[in-house]
Write a structure and sequence with these properties.
By secondary structure, the protein is of the alpha/beta class. 41% of the residues lie in helices and 32% in strands. The protein has helices spanning 25-40, 58-73, 85-93, 106-110, and strands at 6-11, 14-23, 45-56, 77-81, 102-103. α1 packs parallel to α2 (58-73). It is globular, with a radius of gyration of 12 Å.
């Protein structure tokens, strides 16, 4: 992926997507291009590691929602690990907390 603030790690039958810094509209556009690859032939569970994500705007939340929809339509799951209280609040304010299970640790999200 061309985004400098996103990295991928395969672990067993899981994919960890790590975000660093800010997730802005241009990043969301780039991420949208990756959704098909992630949701198509990828693993059954995708864990979004938000430990080092400082900011996510509405475009970023929208991109994550599109990923969640693509995964669930392919009978796959998405989980969020290590999101700060501030980021969890963004999802609550958007009324999306029920779409994304949150886990305090990466290990719990991978289980």
């Amino acid at each position: 992926m061309s985004m400098g603030n996103v990295s991928y790690e395969s672990r067993d039958d899981r994919l960890i997507v790590r975000f660093v810094g800010s997730f802005r509209p241009a990043d969301a556009d780039d991420f949208d291009q990756e959704i098909e690859q992630i949701s198509g032939k990828g693993p059954d569970v995708v864990v979004l590691d938000l430990e080092k994500l400082d900011f996510i705007g509405s475009a970023g939340v929208g991109a994550l929602l599109r990923l969640e929809k693509a995964l669930t339509s392919n009978e796959k799951r998405v989980r969020i690990a290590r999101a700060s209280d501030q980021l969890q609040q963004v999802f609550r304010q958007s009324r999306l907390e029920h779409r994304f299970p949150f886990f305090d640790t990466l290990e719990h999200a991978l289980a």
